[in-house]
Amino acid sequence: MGMELERECPNCGETGFWRTASMMIHIGEKVKWSCNECGYGFVTIDETVDTATA
After folding, report:
1. Looking at residue 48, what is its pLDDT?
2. What residues pair up with 1 in beta bridges, in sequence order?
3. How, if at all, do strands 15-25 and 4-8 pair?
4. Which runs of consecutive H residues, i.e. helices, occur in 1-54?
5. Distance, CA of 37 to CA of 24 (rounded, Å)
6. Strand-pair partners of 36
7. DUF7838 domain location, by residue (predicted)?
8. Which residues fall within 8 angstroms of residue 54, CB to CB, at 6 or more apart?
9. Which of 4, 13, 46, 53 sits at 20 to 30 Å (Cα–Cα) from 31?
10. How far is CA 14 from the centre of its chain?
11. What is the pLDDT at residue 52?
């Protein structure tokens, strides 16, 4: 997984997120993403969990 993610921010509408943190947990890699413009953040865990869509 790269350091940038192209996705529209639900808060400000801009596209582009930076990977701000990651760690391995028992169900996969947990990654925190932050919007380049407004700082909106969400978490993904492998392909199974995505808090931006919750």
Report:
1. 84
2. none
3. antiparallel
4. none
5. 27
6. none
7. 1-54
8. none
9. 13
10. 14
11. 84
